[in-house]
DNA sequence: GCGCCTTGTGTGACCGGTCACATTCATGCC
DNA sequence: GGCATGAATGTGACCGGTCACACAAGGCGC
């Protein structure tokens, strides 16, 4: 119990040492669990630590040893459900491993801005996790200097990445494949796709899965409609699709886009799922409560975040390396927004 | 340009010093903008800095000077729209001031767990921002040792807080007041309220605003229905309210609750806004795209986050103290979910 | 009884910065 | 000319830990 008034600076190992009548090095040994310390000495030191309320200074530890026990998450956004959930998952795992979690937002995808953010993150020391679902994130992941430990949370890669690239991903492609097959199985001639902005120039994993399902079913492949991330983009895309009476099934790159599409269909007087079926992606918490409730594919973002941290943890400390890429399995959730196409054709 | 291979450890001020032919202290002076350095010397040092790609080591800076330039945000959740937006606002302002942002999630409101999280945050050094909208946050804010610089993001306090308590808030009470008056002005006899969990034992600010509007209008005051944070809670509350034919207007503690209420009304066959009007709180991005689109009160969470950081920044560095509590003004957004009560009565 | 290994502990340097103070030299003033 | 003043720079200690090494005491083999 420390009853002295005054804001005194926190106790250091030397304070503890004098209080326990040992050298500071012995204190260091005790707090690091070094074996060769006499039990009676250890007791005395522990008592002194308790008495003075000693806590090891993280800054000094980092400076002296290089071990930082910190991770910085680089992301373009913190408010989108998927991003926020990944962050939450990372924090959860990091907390369990008593790592500190820092966050840097990539406000612009501009080359220089991204580089500056990466630098800032590097300055923080410790490892990096980059959420690379969008151009800013992808660019950031590419801009990380090779000597920095980094894990990327990415879209399903087209080909297995080099072992030198520690990446995690949810199986986007499989998820899109499942959702598309679900819609086709209901009897729709084809499925239109409202895409999220692709993270790279190349086609996104979600698009690939959708395309694959269409191809297997011999369904015609309409041009994907480019959306944005939020419901506004879905709304705009939905307006265009609503005009075409041939459109009876729409897969959306995420639940927010789907929401916008639903709204646009409603405004155009086209009923869901009577005339048009809609499926989303992610299973955001509100999707189950929409009217009509949204058919979607659930991705375990929190788990993905945990995996990302686990992978980074493995890179930073040689203990407990995990399996190469722990991919979580997407789960189709069928709700009200999907059904058979209108009877007549 | 550093073309040497090998992962060499980053250049320190002494490396720069020898490269420039000066002492390390002179380098320190240059990077800190100390006035009395001969221009020619400064030039040489800057050139060396550039050449070696020197970056000041944040850890060493923190250890030696005590200045940490970091802020840790303590929050119960990162995925809810309001929380995530506040975080985004804090990060934005912190980035502008080149502060690092850390995050700690209060997974449980349990006394010991909260205390541990606060300790962890304290270990990170720098300032603290606690989002205290819920029991876990409130408890955390209370558990912060007095000597730590901390800013609370709180509900509108009932009475002006002591100057010793640097807090920021959006005007919840005014927002609830506005929304309630809007519904009453449409002709509803009274307005029912589905509450978010109160952060404290005492009545929440939102409840107070609602109550005040009812009282001023001489409307009867129904018992508030206790909800949770997510749509599920709203759904449960909505089910109960839907059974009572006297209920024609419902104000919800946030947009997620409102979503659940809308869904429950729909399931009970009560039309919105024909039979029942619903208003939310926060103006989450999806609220405008619901069917019916949601009448709500927009709160500037991002701005609130920026204010929180600005206040903390003022506490940490004596430069540029800001006005006591910069309260952002809520804005009523009227959409489809509110309208006059059913004609007959 | 000597050397040697193991156990328990202490000493000094170091991580990369900052701070307080000392030093040098040019200048201005009386 | 002597001396205070200020500009420009350097030196040593320090922040709070860790690391490499030294060293004393005790047990064991021969």
TrEMBL record, chains A, B:
What InterPro entries does the record point to?
HTH_LacI, LacI/GalR-like_sensor, Lambda_DNA-bd_dom_sf, Peripla_BP_I
Q: Which controlled-vocabulary keywords does the entry list?
A: DNA-binding, Transcription, Transcription regulation
Q: Does the keyword Transit peptide apply?
A: no
Domain HTH lacI-type, residue spans? 11-65
Q: Which CDD domains match?
A: HTH_LacI (cd01392), PBP1_LacI (cd01574)
Question: Which SMART domains does its entry note?
Answer: HTH_LACI
Q: Name one GO molecular function term.
A: DNA-binding transcription factor activity
* Protein known as: Transcriptional regulator
Lineage here is: Bacteria, Bacillati, Actinomycetota, Actinomycetes, Kitasatosporales
């Amino acid at each position: 119990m420390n009853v002295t008034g005054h804001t005194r600076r926190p106790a250091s190992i030397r304070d503890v040492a004098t209080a326990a009548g040992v050298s500071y090095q012995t204190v260091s040994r005790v707090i690091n669990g070094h074996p060769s310390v006499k039990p009676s000495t250890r007791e005395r030191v522990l008592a002194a630590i308790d008495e003075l309320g000693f806590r090891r200074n993280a800054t000094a530890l980092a400076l002296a040893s290089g071990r930082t026990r910190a991770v910085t998450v680089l992301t373009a956004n913190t408010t989108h459900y998927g991003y926020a959930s990944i962050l939450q998952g990372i924090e959860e795992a990091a907390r369990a491993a008593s790592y500190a979690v820092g966050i840097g937002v990539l406000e612009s995808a501009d080359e220089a801005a991204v580089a500056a953010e990466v630098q800032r993150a590097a300055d923080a020391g410790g490892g990096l996790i980059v959420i690379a679902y969008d151009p800013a994130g992808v660019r950031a992941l590419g801009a990380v200097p090779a000597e920095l430990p980094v894990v990327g949370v990415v879209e399903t890669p087209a080909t297995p990445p080099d072992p030198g690239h520690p990446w995690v991903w949810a199986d986007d492609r499989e998820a899109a494949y499942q959702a598309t097959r679900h819609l086709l199985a209901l009897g729709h001639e084809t499925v239109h796709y409202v895409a999220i902005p692709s993270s790279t120039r190349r086609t996104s994993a979600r698009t690939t899965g959708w395309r694959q399902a269409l191809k297997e079913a011999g369904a015609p492949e309409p041009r994907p409609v480019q959306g944005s991330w939020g419901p506004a983009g879905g709304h705009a895309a939905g307006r265009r699709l609503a005009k075409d009476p041939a459109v009876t099934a729409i897969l959306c790159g995420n639940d927010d886009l789907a929401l916008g599409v639903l709204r646009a269909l409603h405004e155009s007087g086209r009923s869901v799922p009577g005339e048009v079926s809609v499926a989303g992606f992610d299973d955001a918490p509100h999707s189950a409560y929409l009217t009509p409730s949204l058919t979607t594919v659930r991705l375990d973002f929190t788990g993905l975040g945990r995996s990302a941290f686990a992978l980074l943890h493995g890179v930073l400390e040689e203990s407990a390396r995990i399996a190469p890429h722990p991919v979580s399995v997407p789960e189709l959730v069928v709700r009200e927004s999907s059904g058979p196409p209108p009877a007549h054709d």
